[in-house]
Amino acid sequence: MSILATILESKKKEVAERKSRVSSKDLEKTGFFARNCHALSTSLVQPASTGIIAEFKRKSPSKGVINDALTVEEVTQAYVASGAACLSVLTDYPFFGGTDQDFELARRANPNTPILRKDFMVDEYQIIEAKAMGADVILLIAAALNPDEIKHLGNLARSLGMETLLEVHDEQELDRSLGDFISIVGVNNRNLKNFSEQNVETSKRLAERIPQSFIKVSESCISGPKTISELREYGYRGFLIGESFMKTDAPGKALLEFLNQE
Ligand SMILES: O=C(O)c1ccccc1NCC(=O)[C@H](O)[C@H](O)COP(=O)(O)O
Hints:
262 residues, TIM Barrel, two-stranded antiparallel sheet, aromatic amino acid biosynthesis
């Protein structure tokens, strides 16, 4: 079984269990549900935007433990101070060591910055959860959902005031998944079948195929400032980066160094 299939199987069980504890109706009365969201699309197209979507990532299936010594508040506040355009906070626990509490702590510590809830969305319940925990953006992974599911979940997110980052890995996923309920397309460079890719060739290959009306984000395996400069030439406005920052003792400083060297 592929790692994505394993994650999705586990996620469906987790969501069923969560639903049995708190109903969506109750979620709608909690936390940040009524809050107005920040727009990632607006943040990325500002002339002075760094475009960096900086991720808080403790561990991953491809790398194991990356950094479990730092708190979510210190990392995310340092990212914002260094110029992150957006934060990404993982809420998947079994595979990435993230929690809902991480997300809520990041939200409270960074009230003025867009934050992506990074998880494997398989059910509308998770979209409602995302709004309640203070998310501005959700991730929909084309490899994990059929076009009708993407449309349904994307429209639900939009109806709640959130944006969707649609993640694709290849031409087929891109062509079958785009719609007017999406404004931001992320090309994930990591090959989830064997974790072989360690470069951004997939982003370069798909760049021309993404219609101009969508904001392009390159995700994963971005190892240095030179890569960001190259991706900008292909029209990318956003750069989702986790490991390159998190593997250091000071992820915020690492982000600043990227920007200073670009
Ligand atoms: O990171 C993984 O190993 C991984 C494995 C299976 C599914 C998804 C995975 N990563 C999710 C991501 O999208 C990345 O965390 C994100 O793009 C940042 O990537 P990186 O800069 O390479 O840490």
